[in-house]
Amino acid sequence: xxxxxFTFPKPIGTLVSLLPTFPPSFAFTKVxxxxxxxxILKEYLEPLHGKQIAIRVKDIGLNLxxxxxxxxxxxxxxxxxxxxxxxxxxxxxxxxxxxxxxPDTLFFxxxxxxEGDTELGLVAKNTLDAIELPKLDAAxxxxxxxxxxxxxxxxxx
Length: 157
Fold this sequence. Notes:
Layout: H1 10-17, H2 22-35, E1 53-57, E2 62-68, E3 73-75, E4 84-88, H3 90-97, H4 103-108, E5 113-116, H5 118-130, H6 143-154
Parallel strand pairs: 1-4
Antiparallel strand pairs: 1-2, 2-3, 4-5
């Protein structure tokens, strides 16, 4: 049985949209930089170097702005029209990240919007398709398992 689509309540989106965009953009790029060359290969990103990119999470009012260079993702402040803007709801981004939906399905059902340079959008889509995400075992996140790992690290050696 398929779960109904989740969207954040409108008041939350309104509130978040009033907050500055730089702190979440900074955090987002730090996470992306951790994945660089482990999960995301740098050569896939070459066509995006120097481009202003925006990720817009529509239902929560979250806007993330960054650029990509040869070595890292860098947060930017909103100022100019981005070269590429990708918009969807939080749930649709989650479905993309977990590979439960593919970008083409979301795009053609108008749940994933791509604005700006369409060639850059295709590069971003192909990069997403090329990423090999490690399998996440939800049981590892249980409080008992998390505490066991912390305890073993504390008393190691």
